[in-house]
UniProtKB/TrEMBL annotation:
PANTHER family: CALCYPHOSIN (PTHR34524), CALCYPHOSINE LIKE (PTHR34524:SF6)
Name listed for the protein in its UniProt record: CAPSL protein
Gene: Capsl
Domain EF-hand residues, every copy: 76-111, 112-147
One MF annotation (Gene Ontology) recorded for this entry: calcium ion binding
Superkingdom classification of source: Eukaryota
Length: 209
């Protein structure tokens, strides 16, 4: 069973929607709106920004930032969006680094959680190149119990691709999962789990680490 299942996602989304009613801090509001879409919510916003911004410098100006928020259907008024943008535009250049932005938007996690996530990533990244691909999953992820494989709908390759798509967003399914994708995804899962102990047990069981 993979962590971040739809049941966890529903719990996370419900929790985020509840907290959103009281939230006043613009960054917290944006974070909760992303989490109300489940574990992959923040990552999804990241993908939208990546398509909007300057891919070489990995930056966004305010118009691109607003356009990304609108495209992702985030409800923040322009003043709140400006406030968020100002916080991240540390040097006053009129541009923000969207990697920095996404790291800050991630729900905070303890170091032990980050360590176990990286342990799981390294277990899956058999080639050690910092990216998980279909090839990496062979022999690590058991596809034989997948219902669609059992009933003959999917091949082994399709099961692996569907698995990797969990970490991707609808905007960019490239069959590759970076450490950032993995960390963003599990930051979402982590937000719905109160204790470090439970989170670690869940990860160890899921990834046999």
């Amino acid at each position: 069973q993979m962590p971040g299942t739809s049941r966890d996602d529903q719990a996370l989304a419900a929790q985020a929607k509840k907290k959103l009613i009281q939230a006043t801090d613009p960054i917290e509001k944006l974070r909760l709106q992303c989490l109300s879409r489940g574990s992959a919510g923040i990552k999804g916003l990241g993908r939208v920004f990546r398509l909007m911004g300057d891919s070489k410098s990995r930056t966004l100006d305010f118009n691109e930032f607003m356009k990304g928020l609108n495209e992702y259907a985030v409800t923040l008024d322009k003043e709140e969006a400006r406030e968020i943008f100002r916080i991240f535009d540390k040097d006053g250049s009129g541009k923000i680094d969207f990697d920095d932005f996404l790291v800050t938007l991630r729900p905070p996690m303890s170091n032990v959680r980050k360590q176990i996530i990286m342990q799981a990533f390294r277990r899956l990244d058999r080639t050690g190149d910092g990216v998980i691909t279909v090839e990496d999953l062979q022999g690590v992820y058991n596809y034989k119990h997948h219902p669609k494989y059992l009933n003959g709908d999917w091949t082994e390759e399709q099961v692996f691709r569907a698995f990797l798509d969990n970490f991707d967003s609808p905007y960019e399914k490239d069959g590759k999962v970076t450490t950032d994708d993995f960390m963003n995804y599990y930051a979402g899962v982590s937000a719905s789990i109160d204790t470090d102990i439970y989170f670690i047990i869940m990860m160890k069981n899921a990834w046999k680490i």
